[in-house]
Amino acid sequence: MIFYTTKLIITTLLIVLISEIAKRSSLAGAMLAAIPLVSILAMTWMYIDTKDSSTAVAFSNSIVWLIAPSMTLFLIFPFLIRKGIGFFPSMGISIVMTIFAYYSVIYVLEKLGIRA
User: Fold this and answer.
1) Largest CA-CA distance found in the chain, in angstroms, rounded
2) Is residue 41 within 8 Å of residue 14, measured between CB atoms?
3) How many C-beta neighbours within 10 Å does residue 3 have?
4) Which of 56, 52, 19, 13 is nearest to 5 (CA)?
5) Is residue 109 part of a domain?
6) What range defines the domain where residue 83 resides?
7) Rounded CA gap, 80 and 63, in Å?
8) Where are the beta strands (DSSP E) in 2-112?
9) Nearest-angstrom CA–CA distance, 106 and 26
10) Measured between alpha carbons, how far is residue 27 from residues 33, 35, 90 in Å?
């Protein structure tokens, strides 16, 4: 339970730190957010929990296939904002379109026999 609490605290602190830095400098915040900190933490926690690096490798390989559909959010959201759509509707539409992009990539990968 202590390890679980430690994971929560460290992960939460990183997210809060990045958002606070982004308030002062959007570029610095973006650079920190672009670093795959969450993935690094997830792989680290998986390894510590299982002592098996193959789970981290499988996780990493799956992430590679999902990088492209992740870009949907970062392309659609600013486009909608510039078109005058409000923040929350733009975020919601962007999230839905990103989910659709994820499922589309997973569907294509399955049809090609590639395991994501």
Assistant:
1) 50
2) yes
3) 10
4) 13
5) yes
6) 60-116
7) 26
8) none
9) 32
10) 10, 12, 21
From the centroid of its chain, how far is CA 73?
10
Structure tokens, 50: 């299982």
In a domain? residue 14: no
Residue 69 belongs to some domain of the structure:
yes
User: In the predicted model, what is the mean pLDDT of residues 53-77?
Assistant: 92
Of the candidates 98, 43, 106, the residue with the CA atom closest to the CA atom of residue 70: 98
b/e map 10-46, b = 16+ CB within 10 Å: eeeeeeeebeebbeeeeeebeebbeeeeeeeebbebb
**If you count DSSP H runs as helices and E runs as strands, how many of each does the chain have, helices first?**
5, 0
Residue 17 lies in a domain: no
pLDDT tens digits, one per residue of 8-47: 898 889 889 989 999 999 888 888 887 888 888 889 989 9
6, two tokens? 């430690």
Cα 76 to Cα 25: distance, rounded to the nearest angstrom: 22
